[in-house]
Amino acid sequence: MARTESLRCTRRRVIASGGALALGVLGIGRAHAQAWPAARPIRLVIGFAPGGAADYVARTLGEPLARTLGQAVVVENRAGAGSSLAADFVARAPADGYTILIASPSSISVNPALNPKLTYAKDLLPVTKLTSSPLVIAVHPDLPVRSLQELIALAKKKPGSLNYATSGNGSAPHLGAAHFSAVTGVEMVQIPYKGGAPAIAAVVAGDAHLTFGTPPSVLPMVQAGRLRAIAVTSPNGTPLVPGVPGTIEAGLPNYSLSFWYGLFVPVGTAPEIVRKLFDAAQVALQRSDVKAVLAREGAEVAPSQSPDEFAAFLEGDNRFWAKLVKDAGVKPE
Question: Would you list the DSSP string of 247-285?
Answer without folding.
Answer: TTTTT-TT---EEEEEEEEETT--HHHHHHHHHHHHHHH
